[in-house]
Write a structure and sequence with these properties.
about 20% strand, 8 helices, alpha/beta, 5-stranded parallel β-sheet, Arc Repressor Mutant, subunit A
């Protein structure tokens, strides 16, 4: 797909210039905002394809910006913040952020997160009934999943978790989001159940559960389905 228009929301001019220069060097189109008010205006009028968002803005907390943008748009939002606590990550992701990058960050990592987001955007736009990631295949219409051409014998809950992760490939899903989608609640017992089901699901799809290929754990936060590279097929 063509390089997207990226909205950079950052009040620190040095960091903003670093991100802008990086985007420009790699042929991304970009616009910038230094305040929350400006960010909301740019997001609503310029229709960016991806938003890079700092949480610590002078006039508004970044989580509030996420909530406001989510009232009218599903544009991917990658948070870039110095806040490194799990509670901050969970708050941003639960508000609707797609990814969370902690400062200080490397240019290579920022570009990698952008590539992952672009791949997820491409998968979402295809709206295919068949999902393929490496040797994993999911036939949504038939409600079946396959690995290496062999049908996986999944429980209904395992299939729902796998489908949810696949439909959000590349995106970190918090424990709260997953349990709400799967069980309709966010009880602590549901989080414990999720860990159990995730362990059994991994045994069925991962060749090495100690070094997972498909499902990545974000300790204390949630899970993400990894986009398998072609060379790994």
């Amino acid at each position: 797909m063509n390089k997207p228009l990226v909205l950079v929301v950052e009040d620190d001019s040095a960091v903003r210039n670093l991100m802008s220069t990086t985007l420009q060097t790699h042929s991304y189109k970009y616009i910038t905002a230094a305040t929350g008010e400006s960010a909301i205006m740019q997001a609503s009028t310029q229709n960016p394809d991806i938003i890079l968002l700092d949480l610590g803005l002078p006039d508004m907390d970044g989580v509030e910006i996420i909530k406001k943008v989510r009232t009218w748009s599903n544009v991917p939002i990658i948070v870039i913040s110095a806040r490194s606590e799990d509670t901050d990550k969970i708050a941003a992701l639960d508000a609707g952020a797609d990814d969370y990058l902690t400062k200080p960050f490397s240019v290579e990592e920022l570009l990698a997160r952008l590539r992952v987001t672009m791949r997820r955007m491409g998968n979402t736009k295809q709206e295919d009934a068949i999902f393929i990631n490496g040797n994993l295949k999911i036939d949504y219409s038939a409600g079946c999943a396959y690995l290496d051409g062999n049908e996986l014998h999944l429980t209904p809950i395992e299939y729902k978790i796998l489908s949810l992760l696949s439909r959000n490939i590349g995106k970190v899903l918090t424990h709260t989001f997953i349990t709400k989608e799967i069980w309709g609640s966010t009880l602590e017992s549901d989080v414990s159940s999720l860990r159990v089901f995730m362990a059994t699901l991994r045994k069925k799809i991962e060749k090495n559960t100690e070094s997972p290929q498909y499902i990545q754990t974000h300790v204390g936060v949630g899970y993400r389905m990894i986009k398998v590279q072609e060379s790994e097929n």
